[in-house]
Amino acid sequence: MSALVLPVFSCSLDPRSKSRELAVTSVALLREAGHHTELVDLAATGLPTFDNDRVFETALFAQLHETIRAADGIVLSFPIYNWAPGATVKWLIESTGATGDGEHTAAWFDKVVTFVCAAGLPHSYMATTSIGQSLMADFKCIINPYVGYVSGRDWVDDQLSDDRGYRLEKTLRVHVELAQLLRARSYSSDWEV
Fold first, then answer.
1. How confident is the model at residue 101 (pLDDT cuts 50, 70, 90)?
2. How is residue 44 annotated by DSSP?
3. Does the predicted model carry a pTM greater than 0.90?
4. What's the CA gap between 90 and 69, in Å, rounded?
5. Distance CA 27, CA 118 (A)
6. pLDDT-derived band of residue 105, with 50, 70 and 90 as boundaries?
7. Distance of CA 162 to the CA centre of its chain
8. 12, 20, 69, 156: which could form a disulfide with 107 (CB 3.0–4.6 Å)?
9. Is 122 helix (H, G, I), strand (E, B) or coil?
10. Which residues pair with 116 in a beta bridge?
11. Residue 78 and residue 76: Cα distance in Å, rounded?
């Protein structure tokens, strides 16, 4: 099994973010498995406003776009607010997914994508559905059916409960397996309906 390129994006701006803790844990687990991974912490980047115009001229856009484009799979770690993914993950997808104008090409086509989420309550576990459906329809992404969903009740003394720790590990094992299997795919996608 050859090493994969599997960046983890922490998509929370909260300085005490639980989803960032999940992202850091995900990086450690992927590295332990022998893969090339880096933590891309969007809170440390000084995100510009997504304006569908000048954002494409920024060095941050070029860096994020290339990181996603070159990856075998992407882990998106984000908070759930009001029964939906936080706005920062949407910013990342909107800016690096802009396409169709003949000038900008989305970085997301055919990527394996895994969600790792922190929520206040266990009731919002379906919150990733809309973002997953959008990534599948727009960019033909393969969405990992396992989600590392962790609610406030799943932390014991600032550590993941055994059940949620196991689920996160399994979620990342499936992420790796999907990326391995799809690395040799015979097709490539573009903007198509």
1. low
2. G
3. yes
4. 17
5. 16
6. confident
7. 23
8. 69
9. helix
10. 77, 148
11. 6
Nearest Cα to Cα of residue 12 among 45, 35, 58, 34: 45
At residue 41, what is the residue type?
D
Packing angle between helix 162-182 and helix 18-32, nearest 10 degrees? Answer: 60
Angle, nearest 10°, between helix axes 129-139 and 87-96? 0
**H helix runs in the chain, sequence order:** 18-32, 59-69, 87-96, 129-139, 162-182
Residue type, 107: A
Q: Which stretch of DSSP H or E encloses residue 81?
A: strand 73-81
Which DSSP category does 82 fall into? T
Length of the chain, in residues: 193
Which one, of 144, 49, 134, lies nearest residue 88 by Cα? Answer: 49
Q: Kindly state the tokens that stand for 90.
A: 């949407």
